[in-house]
Amino acid sequence: MKTSVLAAVVSLAILLPAATADDPVIYKTKYRVIDIHRHSGIATEAAFRAMLEVDDRVGIAASVMLDGDSPHGSLPAWLELQKKFPDRLAVFWYLNAMDAKKPTFFTDIVREVDAAAKGGVRGVKVWKQLGMYARDSSGRLLKADDERLDPFWAKCVELKVAVTSHSPSTGWGSRVATNHYIHNHVGSFASAGEAFAKAVMLGGVTKRFPSLNFAFMEGGVAWASELYAGLMSHCGKRNPARIEAYDPRTIDGKLLAELFEKYAVGRMRVRPDLKIGRAHV
Q1: DSSP-based three-state secondary structure for 36
Q2: Are 37 and 9 in contact (CB under 8 A)?
Q3: Which of 27, 77, 89, 201 is deepest in the core (most CB within 10 A)?
Q4: 211/48 Cα distance (integer angstroms)
Q5: d(CA 193, CA 174)
């Protein structure tokens, strides 16, 4: 998973061609800045040129449009803009998991992402609907590791498009304050990224498709380092070859009771009603 995440980040950085020495000097730093998180509901040339004016003033060389939508929405218009401004715009196709209620959803998304990639999209955006509240035609929650999505993941591998997760987790766990936006917002994208990453990893998606790249946006990288360390630690102790060490049937009850009686006198209360060996503490 670590390789997939790193590869996805690198792939985003090289989506667009680098500026040449002959290009006009419009950037504010010596580095080429790419805004990989842009939203806009207006897919017109006039609106995009207005965005470019702002980009030029602040030093943004290019942007990734996450609102590419579907072939039935604004995607065709965004792809036309990408053709006109190939050095300034990369368009991502949006997987609308709320359409999972349609009986043909799983075949539709394979066909649509294929057509979108052939039309020029550079990646796929997945929002928090997947795994949270999108349901299939039978009313069952659609999980991120649902094997019915495997043909879609396989198509992404074939097309060499990265899957980008971009979701907040406001409303989860402790992020439910009704009077403080900051309380709910800080760390929310990191938590959502961790949840999605764990789902596709522990659900076997990354094993079934090891070359599929995933990118996780707007949450930093600390959560990924912690998750990687946690998965390595847990899988190191709870893999098929080691999991039997945690089987309670392998406990030497007699020895355990003797150790408690010897070293825990006055510190623990013995429960004679529940016995492991001579006593259960």
Answers
A1: strand
A2: no
A3: 89
A4: 34
A5: 17
Q: β-pairing, 33-38 with 60-65?
A: parallel
Token pair belonging to 116: 């979108």
Q: Which long-range contacts (CB under 8 A, 24 or more apart) does 182-188 make?
A: 187/219
Q: What is the pLDDT of residue 158?
A: 96
Q: Which residues lie below 8 Å from residue 177, measured CB to CB, with a gap of 6+?
A: 183, 184
Q: Under 8 Å CB-to-CB from 142, ≥6 apart: which residues?
A: 97, 100, 130, 131, 134, 135, 136
Q: Which amino acid is at 162?
A: A
How many residues are there in the chain? Answer: 281
- Contacts (Cβ under 8 Å, ≥6 apart) of 91: 64, 65, 68, 75, 78, 79, 81, 82, 120, 121, 122
pLDDT of 5 reads 45
Q: How sure is the predictor about 278, in pLDDT bands with cuts at 50, 70 and 90? A: very low
Give 133-181 pLDDT, tens digit per residue: 889 999 999 998 999 999 999 999 999 998 988 777 887 788 888 899 9
Residue 168: φ, ψ to 5°: -85, 165
**Residues 121, 20, 26: CA angle, nearest 5 degrees:** 85
What's the gap between Cα 97 and its chain centre?
14
Sheet containing 214-216: order of strands: 33-38, 60-65, 89-95, 123-126, 162-165, 214-216
